[in-house]
Amino acid sequence: MNEDRRRLLKQLGAVAGISLGAGYVSLAPSGWPLSLSDPDGESGKPREKGLRLPEKGFAVDPSNVLPHLGVARGADLDAMLKAAVDAIGGIRRFIRTGDVVLVKPNVAFERSAPLGATSNPDVVAALVRLCREAGAAEVRVADNPIESPAACFARSGVQRAAIDAGSEVYLPTPSDFRLLETPGATHIARWPFFWRPFAGVTKVIGVAPVKDHNLCRASMTTKNWYGLLGGRRNQFHQDIHGIIADLALMLRPTFVVLDGSRVLWRSGPTGGSLADVREGRTIVASTDSLAADAFGWDDLLGRKGEPLPAYFGKAAERGLGNPDWKLTNVREIQVG
Asked: Residue 121: its pLDDT value, please?
């Protein structure tokens, strides 16, 4: 066999192998290793037993008397936060002596605080101090930013503020993630989760800014839990409303704080210009994330009368909150 013929047969064999491989990937049943729905080959490995968060989450017993939504307006952030939390029962309703508390801010982007793309560091610090005053044994602050964790925490001012207020800051590393099981979830029934800061935690509080969002239209307290996911989470942008509804199922917090001290009313979620930000002078505390976010949509983003983003309805259908905030028990307070 001459050399040209031998080379041709090798090339044909290679092409045939590639074609067979591509055909397998595209046509293999979803449960087979390396099918399109298993790009990492996980189906071919022993099934890892996932961890689970508490079945009822980190919530305290509900009340039929106390407001579900506390809205404080003013200029003194510490006083506003305390007033908002007092409206829903006070910090000692939620935090007891010896509690280990996780505070989850939104620190997704490397932006300075005035640009409104991250939680206000002064609000985060006020929340840490409030938990400490209630007797928390430990307060942890954690997020898994989209951009460099160290740069995001430093530039936003959250790291310095949180540490100075008496908390420990957890920056994510690859070994900090474990497989979390969330029964009933559509997209994250089994998904990598920022587990290390949750070890031993007894209470969880989310503190999120009020932001416009180019995909889901608004990012507030429910969307905030996205920052606990690991893995290739950007794929969820294809069903952004579905994943946000899953997040509400995944994590049921002790309460949430909607940081409306400033509002990124356009160009979200990243922002980048002070022209995109306006003063909000409002802090909301709530035991119902959907109610808090719906209030933020109507009042702080100024979109009253516009249909709520689809994730509100998807989460409400699962019994995860009430987006009709006006029908909930609301207390508004003017501070100062």
From this structure: 99
As a whole number of angstroms, the distance between CA 261 and CA 80 comes to 10
Helix axes 121-133, 158-165, angle to 10 degrees: 20
Name residue, tokens 């609000």.
Answer: 123
Report the C-alpha gap between 328 and 314 in whole angstroms: 19
Asked whether 55 and 251 are in contact (CB, 8 A), the reply is no
Q: Is 48 helix (H, G, I), strand (E, B) or coil?
A: coil
Token couple for 3: 């050399």
Residues making up the chain, counted from first to last? 336
Distances 215 to 70, 309, 311 between C-alpha atoms, Å = 28, 10, 11
pLDDT digits (tens, 9 = 90+) for 305-314: 999 999 999 9
User: In b/e form, how buried is each residue of 307-327, taking b as 16+ CB within 10 angstroms?
Assistant: ebbbbbebbbeeebbbbebee
Distances (CA, A) of 177 to 54, 154, 310: 17, 22, 29
Nearest residue to 58 via CA among 287, 334, 300: 287
Q: Are 206 and 250 in contact (CB under 8 A)?
A: no
SS3 assignment, position 118: coil
Closest CA to 81 of 70, 66, 89, 92: 70
Question: What is the chain's Cα-based Rg?
Answer: 23
Closest CA to 330 of 68, 65, 64, 85: 68
The span from the CA of 275 to the CA of 59, in Å, is 38
Q: Which pTM was predicted?
A: 0.87
Look up tokens 């200029």; give the residue.
75
Q: Which of 78, 89, 69 has the alpha carbon at shortest distance from 122?
A: 78
Confidence of residue 49 (pLDDT cuts 50, 70, 90): confident
* Contact present, 143 and 104 (Cβ < 8 Å): yes
Average pLDDT over residues 280-289: 98
Those residues whose C-beta lies under 8 Å from the C-beta of residue 173, and which sit 6 or more positions away, are: none
